[in-house]
């Protein structure tokens, strides 16, 4: 089983000047620690408007910073919201390829729909149509990264003319695709579409075994890839606070994990939120108690090892560590990660190469079958010529009675004014 860390960037109120700068600086330090100890992935969220719960709104920027200061850790989006009103597919393709280039091929492409009302309605995304938007945009974005040129698209939720999207990613045909899964239905959908499952269901090891088996059985029987490559993997989120004294580990770790669960429920289940005014932390404290979000690796290295071995035996491919939550102190997070690296992770790493080899051998015929179900990527027989505006204006200048032509001529005059060094009209 592999490990990742989760960059949610929680920042409970009250806030002071400089607190976001400190949080981002600290988060880069956690990545610095994770890379050499053998954590394989850093997963950065993309959320919008979810105050206190997540201040990770531009993960491509954060992961770009990570790329320049690490050597091995893979850089994961968990997730890119794919509705075009939030992220146009061409912009996603450009950002992924650029990050893949600066990191020399270390990008993981997590996708999703987004589900909170604050986010969806903030970008005027219809809740009912969000899954169809995700599927359309994700399929086309994958094509954009490996087509020269991309042939354009006339769809229900976005359209664009033929363009060659540059740059192209290091990983061919494109980085491995994942999708966020919060229930069994989305898990099976991920398997049917050949996507890795980023599981945020907060389940225990016993249930994880059932989910993993169901995912791989579905993948083997039913996979027709949505993207241009398949990624049969199941990852799950679980907490972490490691200390030699179990009492200290619990004192440091439990409240932050509870706040993570409470903040999630606030935005997705029972919350009434006033932007810029509601204090989720105060409401959380007034609630007195709240259950933790499923499995939480809080305890001594031996206790955590036993918990995580149960997940490994359940067949989980990756455990993503929720190493920061609520008001965790930076020093405690660093100590926890360092101790985890010294006394927990190595045993898992020693077994991982053998597991990966056995898995690759078992899945090879099913992957081959799935790839044969992939629709062919059509190439353009004739690529259209796209004239510059000046050429277009010159061609339309004779038709002065046309409203379009008049606009073009006005634009042409304005352009000549700029080129000639004159001042533009106010």
Characterise the protein shown here:
This protein has 426 residues and is α/β, with parallel strands linked by helices. The protein has 2 domains: 2-372, Luciferase-like domain (TIM Barrel, Alpha-Beta Barrel); 389-419, no CATH class. The chain contains 14 helices and 12 strands. It is globular. It starts with a strand and ends in a 7-residue tail after the last helix. The model is unreliable at 422-426 (pLDDT under 50).
Radius of gyration: 24 Å
Q: Structural class, please?
A: alpha/beta
Strand count: 12
Low-confidence stretches: 422-426
The number of helical runs is 14
Distance between the termini: 63 Å
Number of domain modules? 2
Q: What is the string of SSEs from the N terminus onward?
A: EHEHEEHEHHEEEHEHEHHEHEHHHH
Going by CATH, the homologous superfamily of the largest domain would be Luciferase-like domain
What attributes does this structure have?
426 residues, alpha/beta, TIM Barrel, eight-stranded parallel β-barrel, 14 helices, 12 strands, 13% strand, disordered C terminus
Summarize the structure.
This protein is an alpha/beta fold and 426 residues long.
Helix/strand layout:
Elements: E1 2-7, H1 19-37, E2 41-44, H2 59-69, E3 74-77, E4 80-81, H3 89-102, E5 107-112, H4 117-122, H5 130-146, E6 153-154, E7 159-160, E8 176-181, H6 184-192, E9 196-199, H7 205-222, E10 234-242, H8 246-270, H9 280-286, E11 296-299, H10 301-313, E12 318-322, H11 330-343, H12 345-372, H13 389-396, H14 403-419
């Amino acid at each position: 089983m592999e490990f990742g860390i989760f960059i949610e960037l929680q920042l409970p109120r009250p806030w002071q000047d400089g607190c976001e700068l400190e949080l981002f600086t600290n988060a880069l330090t956690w990545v610095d620690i994770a890379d050499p100890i053998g954590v394989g992935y850093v997963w950065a969220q993309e959320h919008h408007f979810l105050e206190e719960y997540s201040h990770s709104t531009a993960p491509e920027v954060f992961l770009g910073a990570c790329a320049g200061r690490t050597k091995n850790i893979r850089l994961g989006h968990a997730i890119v919201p794919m509705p075009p009103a939030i992220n146009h597919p061409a912009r996603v393709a450009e950002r992924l390829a650029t990050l893949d280039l600066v990191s020399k091929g270390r990008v993981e492409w997590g996708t999703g729909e987004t589900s909170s009302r604050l986010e969806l309605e903030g970008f005027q995304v219809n809740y009912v149509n969000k899954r169809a938007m995700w599927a359309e945009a994700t399929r086309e974005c994958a094509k954009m990264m490996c087509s020269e040129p991309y042939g354009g698209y006339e769809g229900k939720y976005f359209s664009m003319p033929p363009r060659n999207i540059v740059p192209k990613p290091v990983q061919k045909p494109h980085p491995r695709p994942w999708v966020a899964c919060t229930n069994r239905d989305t898990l099976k959908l991920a398997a049917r579409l050949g996507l890795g499952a980023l599981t945020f269901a907060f389940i225990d090891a016993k249930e994880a075994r059932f989910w993993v088996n169901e995912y791989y059985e579905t993948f083997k029987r039913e996979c027709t890839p949505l993207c241009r490559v398949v990624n049969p993997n199941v990852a799950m989120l679980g907490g972490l606070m490691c200390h030699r004294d179990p009492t200290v580990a619990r004192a440091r770790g439990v409240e932050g994990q509870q706040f993570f669960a409470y903040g999630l429920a606030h935005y997705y289940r029972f919350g009434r939120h006033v932007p810029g005014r509601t204090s989720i932390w105060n409401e959380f404290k007034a609630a007195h108690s709240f259950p933790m979000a499923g499995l939480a690796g809080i305890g001594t290295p031996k206790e955590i090892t036993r918990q995580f071995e149960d997940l490994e035996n359940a067949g989980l491919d990756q455990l993503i560590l929720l190493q920061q939550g609520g008001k965790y102190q930076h020093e405690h997070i660093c100590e926890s990660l360092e101790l985890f690296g010294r006394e927990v992770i190595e045993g898992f790493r020693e077994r991982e190469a053998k597991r990966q080899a056995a898995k690759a051998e078992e899945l090879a015929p099913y992957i081959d079958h799935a790839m044969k179900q992939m629709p062919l990527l059509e190439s353009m027989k004739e690529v259209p010529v796209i004239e510059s505006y000046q050429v277009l204006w010159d061609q339309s200048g004779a038709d002065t009675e046309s409203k379009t032509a008049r606009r073009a001529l006005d634009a042409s005059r304005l352009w000549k004014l700029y080129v000639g060094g004159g001042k533009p009209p106010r």
